Amino acid sequence: MTELHPRTRGVLERLPFVGKRRGADPDVVDDLVEIVRATDDPVLAAHRVAIVLDQCSAFDATQAASSCALSDDPKVRRALAEALVWVFPLLGAGSILELLASDPLPEVRFAVARAAHARRLSIGDHVLQRLMTDPDSLVSGAAAFALATRP
After folding, report:
1. In this predicted model, what pLDDT tens digit does every residue of 102-122 receive, in sequence order?
2. What is the DSSP string of 7-41?
């Protein structure tokens, strides 16, 4: 089992809603941004974001994810998009995916295609159809594959 980064462990220890209890910590978004910026590996950053968001209630995870989706920092948006591939409770996940599907970075849009497929949301088909026309061939290919393999 991989040892948690000390910053990730610290965030989890401070969260008042660990175990899916309500009571949002206003510093969670700042903590997520710091975790992402302190990590050079985008997959590891996404994993850490997913761990923290999974420990939040669905409502609080949605607030934090929405803030990260609107971040000016492309590393934060990419980490969030990759984290959404892991399925944890998130209200309005489709709206967040739809927003990130318009991101200027193809890495973010590629992750959105994967997340829309993994989450099996009804809005996911709309997002995937839009991404099929993406100018980046990796993004459009991922969206086409996701649509072709949906149940």
Report:
1. 999 999 999 999 999 988 877
2. HHHHHHHH-TTTTT-----TTHHHHHHHHHHT-S-
